[in-house]
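Protein modeling request. Please complete all fields; requests missing the sequence field cannot be processed.
Requester role: graduate student
Desired output: 3D structure, token encoding
Chains: 1
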Amino acid sequence: MNDKATPCWIYRSPRQSEMYLYLSEKDDFDRLPEALMVRFGRPEPVMELLLHTGRKLARADAGLVLQELAVRGFYLQMPPEIQADLYDAEA
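Delivered output (91 residues):
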């Protein structure tokens, strides 16, 4: 994969905390699966950036995001898994 910078638009889900959608074209929601859009909700714009393989992203691998953008036109970043610590409340 080349290291050319690719424009990328990032949107936040209003329905699921910490779920983000990366698009290769601004506001290009028509190519997304209907089930994804129902679960995601109305996308809220977060930022636009130039993405390249050396770019550090908080919770996604830039190379994988670029690959998905090239193949599918979008990348869905899921929330991190949250594991609750269970405890005995009566102890």
